[in-house]
TrEMBL record:
Source domain of life: Bacteria
Protein name as it appears in the record: Feruloyl-CoA synthetase
Pfam families per the UniProt record, alphabetical: AMP-binding, AMP-binding_C
Biological process according to GO: fatty acid metabolic process
Keywords: Ligase
Length: 507
């Protein structure tokens, strides 16, 4: 199998003059971008980084970040992209855990770097004349390389992503070139991407969705338009200005895009393919996106950093909530919630834990320096995802939440997702999240946290649920009207914050 450096060279050789990357006023063809990548790769090697070394990068989605990702694929250096909002203690952990040789950063991440003791012991490459740097990024670019040749093989590590930790530090997920290339090929195939597609590069390049968009565009000689920090108006302007053809976002960003001032179908008519991942999309938002974009293809993709694709549904509106069936490189099962082995299957319609076989081409091989996490999640050749779901009578998968998010009320196991889908259809509900809150009688009670688009009271929402097909024991026992639903940097609902009272009431 090709490594990723050779994969990029395919695009340079096929389409040297095709537009490859845009970041504001900066635009590179494939030939021009390859020259930048070669210079940066040579600059990293001049600093003493060699094949197999880990390079931490704490940057927004800017052209330098995308260029560093590709430079590492040629040199064999392992890129370790971090959230640019990282805290000093998290950075300390990552530097030490990854055994990093250097870090690249900018102003938004400079404070964390300055306050991290571990970061002071490695090379610090700064952008925009940021304080505390030992080297300037422009110095890397000044290197004049010989003809750049790929030094990595398909079996070398390409990237290490850190999963977001809920109670502790994240876990390193090392992925080889062959894992990454297989995942990118699957992304192209499952989203029916054609030659020359154009996408919005807004999902963070420290997240699997962002990396997949970057690699997939190179596979089809496409255009990657950087959006440094999410801004719905800027995203809308980018779609219109660059005639983007495909979007791959978390549901929250679609919600924001539709709510952006000046949104109209006329401004987004170039978009023919929609894809979403990271969280289920509720019924209400599915309908709104379908009407607004009228896409040829509307894909629900379900996966993770560890195994890029679990399942895929190429017609998301046909069976709202369905995550479809196993992807091209995957086998999946639903086992009983308390299953200790992959053979303890749940019945059709029974909620259980979703597991995925590790022999798939996209699957990782284990966590970095975390034998405890491997023992918990990797069993008999299968990855236990920690996600809950069930298979319907047709064999389609429905993802209902996380094992840790399961609400146990009066002895019943209740997942939040189907309750949220019902409430999302009420015209006064802008956003909704459901969580379990401690209760003396029930153990936990079902509470709906609602952001209103216009006035509605608890009584009306309760009546709406009563007249829906929601079973009575799942009906929320309380409604809380909030200013915002707390979310992670990539748009996932943080139910633990709702359960613990970390939210602002509607003003």
């Amino acid at each position: 199998m090709f490594d990723l450096g050779r994969t990029f060279m395919q695009s340079v050789e096929r389409s040297p003059h095709a537009l490859a990357l845009v970041d504001g006023d900066i635009a590179f063809t494939y030939a021009q971008w390859f020259d930048e990548i070669a210079r940066v790769g040579a600059g990293l090697e001049a600093l003493g980084l060699t094949r197999g070394d880990r390079l931490l990068v704490a940057l927004q989605n800017r052209w330098e970040m995308a260029t560093l990702h590709w430079a590492c694929q040629f040199t064999g250096i392992v890129i370790v992209p971090l959230n640019w909002r990282i805290k000093p203690e998290e950075l300390n952990y990552s530097v030490t855990d990854a055994g990093a040789r250097a870090i690249v950063y900018e102003g938004v991440s400079a404070q964390a770097v300055a306050q991290s003791a571990a970061a002071q012991d490695i090379a610090r490459i700064g952008l925009d004349e940021v304080a505390g740097a030992t080297h300037a990024f422009d110095v890397l670019r000044a290197c004049a390389p010989a003809q750049l040749a790929t030094e990595a093989s398909a079996d070398d590590y390409s990237v290490m992503l850190y999963t977001s930790g809920t109670t502790g530090m994240g876990k390193g997920v090392p992925r080889r070139h062959r894992h990454e290339r297989a995942a990118a090929l699957a992304h192209v195939a499952q989203n029916l991407y054609r030659h020359g597609e154009r996408t919005l590069g807004v999902m963070p390049l420290y997240h699997t969705m962002g990396v997949r968009s970057l690699l997939a565009m190179a596979l089809v000689d496409g255009l990657f338009v950087c959006v440094r920090r999410w801004n719905a108006q800027l995203a809308l302007d980018s779609i219109e200005a660059h005639a983007l053809t495909c979007l791959y976002l978390v549901p929250t960003l679609y919600h924001d895009l539709l709510a952006a001032p000046g949104f109209s179908s006329a401004r987004t008519r170039s978009v023919t393919k929609l894809g979403f991942a990271g969280a289920p999309m509720n019924d209400g938002l599915l309908k709104r996106c379908s009407v607004a974009f009228e896409p040829e293809l509307f894909v629900n993709h379900y996966g993770s950093s560890e195994v890029y694709t679990f399942s895929i549904d190429q017609d998301a509106t046909k069976k709202p909530g369905s995550a479809g069936r196993a992807g091209l490189n995957t086998r999946l099962r639903v086992v009983k919630l308390d299953a200790a082995s992959p053979g303890q299957l749940a019945s059709r319609g029974e909620e259980g834990q979703i597991i995925v076989e590790l022999l798939g081409d996209e699957a990782f091989e284990g966590y970095w320096n975390r034998p405890d996490a491997n023992t918990k999640s990797l069993r008999d050749g299968w990855y236990f995802t920690g996600d809950t779901g069930y298979l319907d009578a047709d064999g389609d998968l429905y993802v209902t939440g996380r094992v840790d998010d399961m609400i146990i009320s009066g002895g019943e196991n209740i997942s939040p997702v189907d309750i949220e889908s019902v409430l999302s259809l009420h015209p006064a509900v802008d956003e909704v999240a459901v969580a379990g809150v401690k209760d003396e009688r029930w153990g936990q009670k079902v509470v709906a946290f609602v952001k209103r688009s216009h006035y509605v009271d608890e009584r009306a929402l309760d009546e709406f649920c009563r007249t829906s097909d929601l079973v009575n024991f799942k009906r929320p026992r309380e409604y809380v009207f909030v200013d915002q639903i707390p979310k992670s940097p990539v748009g996932k609902i943080l139910r633990r914050k709702l359960s613990s009272g970390e939210y602002e009431l509607e003003r």
